[in-house]
Amino acid sequence: MPDVVRDIAAIIGAALVGSAALSGVALWLFKLFGEKWLGAKFSERLEAFKHDQQLEIEHLRFEINKRLDRTIKLHQREFEVLPRAWSLLAESYNSVRSLTSAFQSYPDVDRMTHAHLEEFPSESPLKNWQKDELKSADDKNKSYQDAIF
Q1: Is residue 132 part of a domain?
Q2: Distance separating alpha carbons of residues 117 and 114, to the nearest angstrom
Q3: What does the DSSP 8-state code read for residue 110?
């Protein structure tokens, strides 16, 4: 029986040594290929992340440029439109002014008597030299209208 136990112990020992050696080799292979596989996966994910970041940066640059172009075009259009708008406004103001000035009434200075002509300018807001010009003018109505404007 001692031979049988020794044989069984030898078989068990050989199995343990063989399994330990096999486990060691498997662990070494896993470590060797596992590091390469993990490094490859990490590099692949890092590259994908960098690519996504680059796409996002390009998208943001495009949006910024698009908005900047809109702003530049808006300002350019403003510089084209504003002078035209001001000229149209001035033109319309002058048209309305000339149209409404016809409806204004003025005293008929040409038909005033000499006494009335002496008193009328003294009550008006004209300056003294304008009053003198009004008294000596040939067309007193035109002279008065020019003076009050």
Answers
A1: yes
A2: 5
A3: G
| Token duo for residue 84 | 């035209």
* Burial zone of 137 (CB within 10 Å; 0-12 exposed, 13-18 middle, 19+ buried): middle
Scanning the chain, the segments in alpha helix (DSSP H) are: 2-101, 114-123, 128-136, 140-148
Q: What does the alpha-carbon distance between residue 70 and residue 30 come to, in Å, rounded to a whole number?
A: 58
Q: Domain total for the chain?
A: 1
**Owning domain of residue 112:** 107-149
Q: Residue 137 falls within a domain, yes or no?
A: yes
**DSSP structure class, residue 138:** S
**What six digits make up the tokens of 103?**
């409806």
Q: Is residue 115 part of a domain?
A: yes
- Summarised one tens digit per residue, pLDDT across range 20-72 is 888 988 888 888 888 888 888 999 999 999 999 999 999 999 999 999 999 89
Q: Do residues 121 and 134 touch, judged by C-beta distance below 8 A?
A: yes
Write the pLDDT tens digit of every residue in 98-138: 888 767 777 777 777 777 777 777 777 778 788 777 777 77
- Report yes or no on 136 lying in a domain: yes
